[in-house]
Design goal:
7-stranded mixed β-sheet; 41% helix; binds pyridoxal-5'-phosphate; globular; 14 strands
Length: 389
Amino acid sequence: MIYLDHAATTPLATQAADAMARASALAWGNPSSVHAAGRTARAALEQARATLASVLNAGDARLVFTASASEANNLALKGTVLARRSTPTHLVVSAIEHESVLTTARYLAATLPHVMLTEVTPGTDGIVTRDAIAAALRPESALIALMHANNETGMIQPIEAVAELARERGIPLLCDAVQSFGKIPVDFTELGCDFLTLSAHKFHGPRGAGLLLARRGAAFDALVHGGLQEGGLRAGTENLPAIAGMAAAAELAVAQAAIEARHLMQLERQFLGQLDVAGQAYLLNGAPGPRLPGVINLSLPDLSQDDLIIGMDVAGFAISAGSACSSGVVEPSHVLEAMGLPDWRVRGSVRFSFGRGNTQDEIEAAARAFCELASRLEGALPSAAGGAG
Ligand code: PLP
């Protein structure tokens, strides 16, 4: 199987696996214990925190380890709302956010009478502008959420401009950098946001490790109580092997980011070039505009994403719809819908996301298989057989 779904998850890097093995063997103590085994584990935990703070240029921000980016996004959103007690609270959330932001914001607005929500839609290019966010702000606005790059289209959002607006208006900004980290620079200080979230398994680290960076002074409450771990912001014994794996994967991702971006861009050019040469009709979703290298979301007229994904799977290639799957059924993408794309384009969309391990030969084979599959499916359409349209 050739894996072309790196925006969903990535294989574990050897360096991350080695760091996990070392932490399991040598730093197995409880970081909260006062004895030597605990102190060794504590040192390893703080070393991982320092590494991550350094690669993210976090300054004096607080770095809270979580079990996933979904948890980190929940912590920023719900934690902010909880810290405001019953003060009227307006959340301004982009309509293209990952479900862990969007669904959480909707849940808060639906269950708490003092919480209101505005979802800000992007243009047809998939970009949410500073002006669109500015137009949504109200005196009670208490948090803006705009992701760094979208997981379905790869479109990079104007975070610095929105951070400037947020600062001017005194409103904290949550930036989900899950997809961008390791592909484009993610510098907490330069981005200027108040909260930033990451997930280790998206950059060749392990599952079970995410993080929330929070600007010092940003007010948010814990969601899990019962221990003083993570400065009282997330009770529970830390998953040190996964955290050590995340730190090693992050160091590697940052060290290789420029080389990896070039590699991914080359694979992307090769893939689209091959489709063009084959005369394959397709529409790129999200372009033109700044996009993550190696993430391609395209629609084929008249074809269904289910047929394309299953057909590619049978041919030995893992691709996806980009949108969430529940019980094996692909849901229509809320991102492409928010971009105002027509229904046929939403239902005919698939995502290829290349990774550091992919080779030119693999991409060549994938493009060939995709074109063959598309012509087979197009040939089977009723209109192609001369049937009633
Ligand atoms: N945010 C974005 C943009 C994502 O793509 C994902 C995962 O797909 C998440 C958050 C959630 O990450 P995790 O799997 O760590 O919960």
